[in-house]
Amino acid sequence: MNNDFYYKAIEPDESLLDFVENIGMFHNKSDKDMEVVLLPDGRIDLFFMQSESEPFKISLIGLETIPEQQYIPANTLAFKITFKPLGVEYLLQTSITDILNSGKVLPKDFWNVTNDDLKDFDAFYSKIATKLKELLPAKIDERKRKLFKLVYESNGEIKIQQLSEEISWSSREINRYFNKQFGLSLNAFCKILRFKASLEHIAKGRLFPELNFTDQNHFIKEIKKFSGVVPSELLKNKDDRFILLSVLKEQ
Q1: Residue 121 sits in the same domain as residue 186
Q2: Which pLDDT value is given to residue 168?
Q3: Last residue of a domain, one of 74, 105, 135
Q4: Residue 84: which domain range?
């Protein structure tokens, strides 16, 4: 990865794993803006960030279904929480239908995090982990917990009918839940997870379908739909524009 860009992420302890993927940070240490392409990955990010050109702000970024070009301002420092969908529903207690492929700025006193908290990542991690545990619900809908467990384990390749039968929840109700809570259908979410799993293969130089794609053409078409480029261009990752791919290559 670009030497001017530093990234770190730590998985939370087991009590939070159904809700949070990681607590992390990134730092554009360059004095130049950095061009990046954000790829759909089935995750929701809560950012606490500041730069020389922009004051401290807190923003929530919803699910993405298309690649999006962004610029990270020079000398930007950001700490973040990467949520799984259940984390949005049960910890943030909000719907993200209105921020599909977009985001929104949150109040500056959200969770009592200030720009002073960006001085020490370990202290930030400890503070946020404590806050998230305080927000853990006493009870959740076990159908939803099992739904996401099965969807993640299959990399989005489980059929909705099979899912419906295994969790005793009708496919119609499942899709109503997804659309109302997250702004997209279960099928659309599953395709994003399959794309993300395919990125792990591409990062290792494997440019052929290893998941349930019809054929090579279908694979290329789906990769291009979610990334904007064909698999071979993704692998080249010129100038480390595709940050997610750069991170996967280092794992």
Answers
A1: no
A2: 96
A3: 135
A4: 5-135
pTM beyond 0.85, yes or no? yes
Phi-psi region of 199 (alpha: psi -120 to 50; beta: other; left: phi over 0): alpha
What is the tally of structural domains in the chain?
2
Residue 58 C-alpha from the chain's centroid:
16
Q: Do 31 and 121 reside in the same domain of the chain?
A: yes
User: How far apart (Å, rounded) are the C-alpha atoms in residues 201 and 209?
Assistant: 9
Residue 202 contacts residue 234 (beta carbons within 8 Å): yes
For the chain, percent of residues with pLDDT exceeding 70: 99
Co-location of 130 and 208 in the same domain: no
Q: What is the pLDDT of residues 64-101, one digit of tens each?
A: 999 999 999 999 999 999 999 999 999 999 999 999 99
Last residue of a domain, one of 135, 155, 174: 135
Q: What is the pLDDT of residues 112-151, one digit of tens each?
A: 999 999 999 999 999 999 999 999 999 999 999 999 999 9
Given a contact cutoff of 8 angstroms between Cβ atoms, the answer to whether 219 and 198 are in contact is: yes
